[in-house]
Amino acid sequence: MVSEWKSTSASASVAPPTATSPSPWEDDALLSEALANFEADTAMAPPPDPPQQPQTDPVPPSQEPPSGPRKRTSKSAALPQPQPIEAIVTQPEVSFEGWHKQWESGPHGLPSADVKWLREDADRGLFKNLTIARRKILKDDRMWFHPPEIPGVVVGGGVPSADAFFRSRVFFWRPVGVWGYSLRCPRSGCPGGKAAFLYRCGYGNTVRHICDMTGWYSMLTELLACNACRKAAKGSQEHSIGRFLAWDAAILKQLTPAHQAVFPAILTPRRGVDKQVVRLMRDRTEGNTMVKVWRQVQEGHCEEYLQRKDLYTTLLCQLSRPGSIMSALGHQYQKPPTRRELPSPRLLRKAYLIYEAEHIELLDYRTQIMSTFGKVLKYDSTRKRPQSVTSTSLPPAAELPDERPHTSRPQVQ
Fold this sequence. Notes:
The protein is 32% helix and 11% strand.
């Protein structure tokens, strides 16, 4: 029935027009029939195929997206968003005048507990702030730098660090930088002669660890140079640039005895011994050996170390008592550093001999030993004078008055 109706409608629609003009009612009927046929055709036609999408690699099972409706993401969300200007611009690093990287690295540098407060502490550290916020210079009004005090209580509920309990003091030897001392070039063949003075040209990268009565402290120094030697080294290869550490013996000898006494230690090739330890060896009575002095110093070191360690562990016990937050969280605390070993008694003896040799040169004991008449070759226990006396302008020994005063003794009957 439907096919017959379609054929009749199609034939009726395609029939050639007659000579007579159709009425307006016939035109409306034809339009309604054509619209009905178009709607019937579109209803019976199959739906169009969906557009093909580009093939993508299958998602592995472990990375499959979760089930459920997917959220539409725009292309702008997939692209990386630009960061704000404040996050991109990095802050410039703070420059510390004269600070060496070798000071904070290796076993021969500064202790790790002392690096932070020496750089950042404005009151006790090495540096002072300038109007320029990103630059710090060395303080020129002191040589001793003492660390902050050991905390006795926990402030603010924080966990104390072990470094705060095992800090040590630092001595920065700078006779030119602090005192403005005028020092001459110690080289005998300096082109400038006695008129060549040393100037400060930086700071040495060597750190000396000094053994004290109850612990250790670090020593730093400035670097001095000779301008005359530097100019001569540029002109010829025979000369070399004269650079000297301020703690060299040739530099210390130029200071007055009062300024030399400010230098606190006797330096050895690698370490040093404080003068207070050396003074314990002066008493050369029976039983006062180097081993005994070494035991006294060891006792002082052990007591100081155990006292600091006891205070640190006591504060940790207060924080980790049963029922506290730290005990519930199972916080891991920093272990205290190990105690440093003392130098051997042989090194203490070497430091003592160096100290005594310096005092002999200062006091010049040789002038008290030598005779006023020349170099004495032989001493006799009698009142006879030695005959081998190197003197040409003096009278014979028999004509000289006797040196020993005569004392009248009663005759023994």
